[in-house]
Amino acid sequence: MWDRTILLGLIGVCVPLSLVSFGGGPAIIAPLQHQVVDVHHWISDRDFVDFFAISRAAPGPGTLIAALIGYHMAGWIGAITAALALYVPSSIIVYGVAQFWKRAEGSSWRPAVERGLVPVAVGLVVAGALVIFEAGGFGPLQMLTAAIATGVFSARLAGPYTVFGVVIALYLGLAAVWPQVYLQG
């Protein structure tokens, strides 16, 4: 038998996040982490990072992390509850907004709304990335590496295997030359 309090708690966390997920799944990572780790203490920071990594590696949306948290809390019924609470409300709203948006094609206010939502979405996605960095124990070296890799990928200067190889070589070099800096990094 499952604990109804936990299922209601999952719904109480996931439904509001579903309604404010501007920018897609990555936009809710920071508030999800805050709720499940800091507010409800359902999982640790380390568990959150592990669940995040699994959800990103698995096929499907990255917000499968909610189902993983639900599964951790209440088994399969928790996973299903969390997934439905996260996907159904936003899906209903997206369907309604898409119908309205289609009818508003060519209106003068539509481009202004689109431009206004871009910084909101970007800010939420960046906040999610920072939460993962902090929860994962990333230091300045790892953050700098992520920033440089993002720049290289965005500018299409090199492919992932080249970047991975360079980063591994640099980290091994750092570990050999300055082990105390690398290990604290």
Q: Kindly estimate the percentage of residues that lie in beta strands according to DSSP.
A: under 5%
Assembly category: single chain
**Shape label:** flat
The strand count comes to 0
Describe what is shown at a glance.
The protein has two domains: 4-137, no CATH class; 138-185, no CATH class. 78% of the residues lie in helices and 0% in strands. It has helices at residues 4-19, 29-39, 45-57, 65-103, 110-135, 140-154, 160-177, 179-184.
Task: Describe the protein's architecture and organization.
By secondary structure, this protein is an all-alpha fold. It has 2 domains: 4-137, no CATH class; 138-185, no CATH class. Helices cover 78% and strands 0% of the residues. It has 8 helices and no strands. The chain has helices at 4-19, 29-39, 45-57, 65-103, 110-135, 140-154, 160-177, 179-184. Helix 1 (4-19) packs parallel to helix 4 and helix 2 packs across helix 5. 25% of the residues are buried.
